[in-house]
């Protein structure tokens, strides 16, 4: 299960993280978001990936604006305080696993 974090927690991680991390932006009533979360859980169970957490976009307005997130689900990878990649189309477990390799 993906760990839910707050906008404040994510900003702290984002600013101090030396290693790569990912975060899934979602909304609770989004069916595609639920599918994306399930695919990410499968990838994480297989192992060998960077850490992934999730955040409800409704409670992260500043990050949504700063990172120009235009839709959900959105998977963001950041490292050492910088946004590295942003992905909206989460096609398959295999694609996600390759994208999230350590």
TrEMBL record:
> Gene3D superfamilies under this entry?
Glutaredoxin
> Which species is listed as the source?
Paenibacillus motobuensis
This chain's protein is named Thioredoxin domain-containing protein
Q: Which SUPFAM superfamilies match?
A: Thioredoxin-like (SSF52833)
Tell me where on the tree of life, at the top rank, the source sits: Bacteria
Q: Where is the Thioredoxin domain?
A: 23-101
- Identify the CDD domains for this entry: TRX_family
Q: Which InterPro entries match?
A: Thioredoxin-like_sf, Thioredoxin_domain
Which Pfam family, any one, appears in the UniProt record? Thioredoxin
- What residue intervals traverse the membrane? none
């Amino acid at each position: 299960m993906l760990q839910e974090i707050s906008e404040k927690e994510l900003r702290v991680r984002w600013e101090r993280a030396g290693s790569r991390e990912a975060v899934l932006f979602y909304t609770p009533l989004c069916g595609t978001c639920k599918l994306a979360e399930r695919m990410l859980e499968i990838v994480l169970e297989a192992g060998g990936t960077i850490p992934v957490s999730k955040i409800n976009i409704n409670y992260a307005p500043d990050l949504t604006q700063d990172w120009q997130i235009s839709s959900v689900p959105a998977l963001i990878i950041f490292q050492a305080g910088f946004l590295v990649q942003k992905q909206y189309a989460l096609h398959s477990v295999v694609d996600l696993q390759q994208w999230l390799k350590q």
